[in-house]
Input
Amino acid sequence: MGFFSAARQGRKDDAELGRGLWRRAHDRFQRGLDRFHQVLEGVDDDQLYDELVEIANSLAALLIRVRAICMEAQRRSPSEALDIPDSLSAVHRALSKAGNSLATTAEAAAMLRLAVGPVPVGAASVRRRAEAVFRQIDDAEAALGASGAAPGEPTEIPG
Output
């Protein structure tokens, strides 16, 4: 991404996600995805690489959902600081857990990359950790829906 396109994206992110809590949750998830993809670059075993790419692609697809959650949370409770609104604390908790789980998923992939010889169970440990990320994003969406919308507002996440 060039300098000007990065600046435009930053302004778009500021407008949609704010500069506080929700932007931070989104950016943390995105950094976790970047780290996972960096780990892929060092995998020599073709079979393991293919398994990890499949997991990486499914995790990358979650970023759209994370962005939608954060945009809706920012719309409901604008944040320019790191104060967690009571009404959306469960949403933030689930997003935070998802970011942590994504980091441990990347760590598990890195450990597999460093394994000596063939890995008998393949990427099973990475897949288990990735499943936790999916569950936590589901939890964030459910918490956002449960937090309720004002009368006349949609209760579903846009997109």
Notes: Residues 25 and 96 are 7 Å apart (CA to CA). The first helix runs from residue 3 to 17. The helical segments are 3-17, 21-40, 46-76, 89-113, 124-146.
